[in-house]
């Protein structure tokens, strides 16, 4: 068997068996969980693994309860999947109905006059639940008081990594990624005065639905200096999205390390229903599969892979694969705009996809593309891999210059997922730009309370949630109308009194932190 660090000879030898762990929550009954918690892996049937010839081996007691909690949460999410979906559809319809008719009073007046405006999902006026949490669409005009693309021209086409205008653009793009294609196009063209390139709704073969949303823009249509890629994050009423965040399953990529399986699936790089598909897509330097060709005969499972690829072709069907769709479009844009650099960004789950996209580019040996990378900006991003991935990414994105900016607001739950301790699998990497509830920024290796559920943080988290509720009621009075929080945001703050980590995940917190942040130990712009 070829060792994972012998990748240079791998193309000339028989492929090694992949290493992975799949936590199948749908196969875990109550008795299975109890037996697993007490006896370990020998007493269960819901973990599928291939950890070399020795198997998983014994699982430590403190690791078992993490897996049990993960399974329980995912089972609950699966049970409430449809109710959450229906609730989300109803909530978004009512929010748009009220918004389009001018609130409750306008709704009754229009209804009485027979002029009721009915929202249509997918139109350029239908805003998502995230969009109603924070209705801001314009980019903040900082000291220059110029639109972002005009500021770029004024500075000779240069973009400064870590600058507030660039961070604001990335966070607003991350928030915009939750909207439908027509809203995205309208905001980019008419509000930001930039060039809309493409919007993709991509296929997740494990979830059997188009659940990965991403758009691309340029700062201007000709001779662009910036290409921005924004992945959609965790939708509040999407049980599958939340289940992915809580999933503990991983797949080991030689040379990269162990990577969260759910995030690889969201990029379209395989499916746990056919684990061999990961091996097909993750073949290393010079061996990435695209929509035009594949070396199926070199793989022992050619038949099932052929079936998988047949469903995955980019141009012949509607079932786009996010990684290849974005990579191909990015390559053509950088060929067209010779001086352009690109940024990848995302909030929540979108942040995980944003950092994994360049990781796979590096693994596939896309050196030409990676030389044009300006930076990766993530907001409330969950952990994506192990220590080996941490070392690999820090070597490429943090040295000799900082290209990875990971922002965490206060008690946000999502960056503390999946669980981590000194010996556990999932690790953050790079520098954390941490903002407390007073918008004071500190640069650190890891956010405080890195696993969220520590008992000693319980009281401070809830007291802080009370302060955030009070703050939401006075933001407009203190800082001006741009910061006035919507009623949806205030209702989320009320929910935060019970679950502080959920309300702290709101994009509102990240936008305000970037604009109002007091920068302590601030990194100098590159």
How would you sum up this structure, described in words?
The protein is α/β, with parallel strands linked by helices. It has a domain of 286 residues. The strands form two sheets. Strands 3-4-5-8-9-10-11-12-13 form a nine-stranded mixed sheet, with helices on both faces. A four-stranded antiparallel sheet has the order 2-1-6-7. α1 runs antiparallel to α2. The longest helix has 22 residues. The radius of gyration is 23 Å and the shape is globular. The N terminus and C terminus are likely disordered. One of its GO terms (molecular function) is triacylglycerol lipase activity. Pfam families: Lipase_3 (PF01764).
Comma- or semicolon-separated keywords:
disordered C terminus; globular; 14% strand; 526 residues; four-stranded antiparallel sheet; nine-stranded mixed sheet; 20 helices; disordered N terminus; alpha/beta
């Amino acid at each position: 068997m070829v060792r994972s660090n012998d990748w240079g000879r791998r193309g000339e030898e028989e492929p090694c068996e992949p290493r992975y762990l799949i936590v199948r929550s749908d196969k875990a009954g109550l008795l299975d969980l109890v037996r697993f918690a007490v006896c370990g892996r020998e007493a269960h049937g819901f973990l599928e693994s291939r950890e070399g010839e020795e198997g998983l081996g014994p699982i430590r007691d403190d690791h078992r309860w993490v897996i049990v909690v993960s399974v329980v949460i995912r089972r609950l999410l699966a049970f409430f999947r449809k109710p959450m979906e229906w609730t989300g559809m109803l909530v978004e319809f009512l929010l748009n109905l009220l918004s389009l008719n001018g609130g409750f009073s306008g709704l009754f007046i229009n209804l009485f006059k027979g002029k009721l405006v009915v929202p249509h999902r997918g139109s350029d006026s239908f805003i998502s639940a995230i969009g109603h949490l924070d209705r801001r669409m314009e980019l903040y005009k900082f000291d220059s008081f110029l639109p972002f693309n005009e500021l770029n021209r004024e500075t000779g086409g240069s973009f400064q990594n870590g600058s507030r205008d660039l961070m604001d653009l990335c966070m607003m793009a991350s928030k915009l990624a939750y909207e439908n294609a027509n809203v995205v196009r309208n905001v980019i063209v008419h509000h930001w005065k930039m060039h809309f390139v493409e919007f993709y709704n991509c296929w997740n073969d494990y979830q059997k639905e188009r659940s990965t949303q991403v758009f691309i823009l340029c700062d201007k249509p000709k001779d662009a200096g910036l290409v921005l890629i924004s992945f959609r994050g965790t939708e509040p009423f999407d049980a599958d999205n939340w289940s992915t965040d809580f999933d503990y399953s991983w797949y080991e990529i030689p040379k990269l390390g162990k990577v969260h399986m759910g995030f690889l699936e969201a990029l379209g790089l395989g499916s746990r229903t056919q684990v061999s598909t990961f091996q097909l897509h993750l073949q290393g330097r010079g061996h990435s599969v695209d929509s035009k060709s594949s070396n199926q005969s070199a793989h022992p499972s050619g038949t099932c892979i052929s079936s998988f690829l047949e469903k995955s072709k980019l141009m012949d069907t509607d079932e786009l694969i996010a990684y290849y769709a974005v990579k191909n479009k990015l390559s053509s844009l950088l060929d067209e705009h010779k001086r352009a650099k690109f940024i990848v960004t995302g909030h929540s789950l979108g942040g995980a996809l944003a950092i994994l996209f360049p990781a796979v580019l590096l693994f596939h040996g896309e050196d030409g593309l990676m030389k044009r990378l300006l930076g990766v900006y993530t907001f409330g991003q969950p952990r994506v891999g192990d220590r080996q991935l941490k070392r690999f990414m820090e070597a490429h994105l943090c040295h000799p210059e900082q290209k990875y900016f990971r922002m965490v607001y206060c008690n946000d739950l999502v960056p503390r997922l999946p669980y981590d301790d000194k010996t556990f699998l999932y690790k953050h990497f790079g520098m954390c730009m941490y903002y407390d509830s007073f918008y004071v920024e500190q640069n650190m290796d890891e956010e405080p309370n890195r696993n969220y559920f520590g008992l000693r943080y319980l009281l401070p988290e809830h007291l802080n949630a009370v302060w955030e509720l009070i703050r939401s009621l006075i933001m407009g009075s203190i800082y001006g109308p741009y910061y006035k929080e919507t009623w949806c945001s205030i209702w989320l703050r009320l929910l935060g009194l019970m679950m502080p980590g959920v309300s702290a995940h709101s994009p509102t917190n990240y936008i305000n932190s970037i604009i109002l942040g007091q920068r302590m130990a601030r990194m100098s712009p590159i």
